[in-house]
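Could you help me review a protein record that somebody else here produced? Do not assume that whoever made the record got everything right. The record follows directly below this note.
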Amino acid sequence: MLRVESGTFVCGNSLVTYRGFSPGDIVYRLTDVKTIDSPSFRTIQVGKHKHVDDLEILAFLNHSCRPNTHIIIDNDELVIVAASVISPGEDLTFFYPATEWDMAQPFRCLCNAQNCLGFIAGAKHLPEDVLDRHPLSKHIQQLIAESRHHPQLHDDAVLGRTPATVDE
């Protein structure tokens, strides 16, 4: 149902579907996930201090500021759900800040979406009006709430700064 293709996305490999999906359809389910305590550029954050490293084929799910999937994190499962109509042969994407608070390896976004953010570093670095446009994981919602009570957790976004380190 899914395959990895080289060169179909702007940079590197991408995850492509063989079949179409309607909004709300389950695209993929990763069960019995094992978590680690620290992030890397190949993990998905599933809790305040929990990250999944063994992502199987999901390691090729790229970011987009206008994603066609979103991730639901439910205890020991990661479920990829269609956020829009997805046609056969389409690259599957999700909005990284929906699961990532402060990314281990920020990057320049090349998605070319109409509202492309240009730089992706995690939810911590985005204003809430941008985050409000996307379904967010529970742990990201909790971290946003905590940052309201402890502004130092969210200083970069409040001051309009982006992290100095950019990996291209």
In short: The longest strand covers residues 26-31. Helices lie at 128-131, 138-149, 155-158. The two ends are 30 Å apart (CA to CA).
